[in-house]
Amino acid sequence: MDWSHVTYLRVLIRPVLIASITIFICVFWIQSNSSDIDIKSAQHGHQLAVQSVQLCPLISPRLIGWTNLSLEAMSAISKEDEGIVELRMKQSGVKPGGRYEPSRCQSRHKVAIIVPVRNRTEHLAVFLRYMHPFLQRQQLSYAIFVVEQSERSPFNRGMLMNIGFKEAQLSQEEYQCVILHDVDMLPEHDGNPYTCPEDGKPRQMAFSVDHWNNYNSVSWNFLGAVTAMSANDFQRINGYSNAFWGWGGEDDQLFQRTKSQNLTVVRAFDGTVSQVVHYKTMSHPRATPNPDRMSVINEGWKKFQTDGLVDLRYTRLSLKLEPLCTRIVVDIQPYNITT
Ligand code: UDP
Ligand code: MN
């Protein structure tokens, strides 16, 4: 055997082997990292795409103005086939739970509309069918929360509003404001802003209503029917009182609560009454006022800090993401309010 030949081969093969292993490792490293780089650049591109969705314009180009809400028009809305309405709403972008955000621009406002109800099925159908397109024309990001009270106790509008606020928070969406909305009130003109008011300035929306006073403005102390408030302000005033069972009083006390925190109640367009701020009501039998409401109002001053969102107690019987709203059914009953 020629040993010098074997040694010669060894000397030749070793560097070739080392070089090929090194090349293999390099190629593998570059490949695995380049796919990482691709993912990162794609993610970056997506971020840019999200960021580049423009804020919606200050005045929506989709507004159409005044809508005729005659009895015939409302009856036509209520008679439309439920399946067809739901399909149309879905196509327009309404998500289960009655949630919506504009697809082509980023809304400047994220609004939770809270509607307290009991035995107002027809009003609710018209309300939802009318309000979705209305709110969409304003390019708002919004959800409609319907809070329905079980039969057990007298109706408690304030407590239902508090529950709606809590449930909107529990939904993990960051709503900037709430619009506390009676089910039987319809804004006639989509120039009536359902945007979020700034902190410190709750906006009284219903002050020019057809049947109240033939559209004449109501008192500046009135804070009922339809009211918009920033989420910060609603929290700051501890929401509504939970102590008003039956008709009346909770809205008067809401006004007192805003005053106690030095909030300034404003109206759209400096309170000017024009067709833009008109509301149409849907009729119903008049409720019997709660005879105790004046004493609850008078007692209430001492309880702003303890009676409201902080001591809210309720049993949630169900929560359903329906095609046009998030419906929360609750059982509530009176309890002693700590002073
Ligand atoms: N409401 C209800 N069922 C009732 C009582 C009141 O759904 O039995 C709700 C509904 O949203 C209504 C609001 O509470 O619009 C205010 O009550 P109501 O309409 O009786 O008061 P009004 O302002 O007409 O005096
Ligand atoms: Mn009413």
Automatic annotation (TrEMBL):
| Protein name listed in UniProt | Beta-1,4-N-acetylgalactosaminyltransferase
State its Enzyme Commission number(s): 2.4.1.-
> Any transmembrane segments, and where?
12-30
**UniProt topology in membrane:** Single-pass type II membrane protein
Q: Which SUPFAM superfamilies match?
A: Nucleotide-diphospho-sugar transferases (SSF53448)
Q: In which pathway does it act?
A: Protein modification; protein glycosylation
Role according to the record: Catalyzes the transfer of galactose onto proteins or lipids.
Which cellular compartments is it found in?
A: Membrane
Q: Name one GO molecular function term.
A: galactosyltransferase activity
Any one of the GO BP annotations: glycosphingolipid biosynthetic process
Q: Name one GO cellular component term.
A: Golgi apparatus
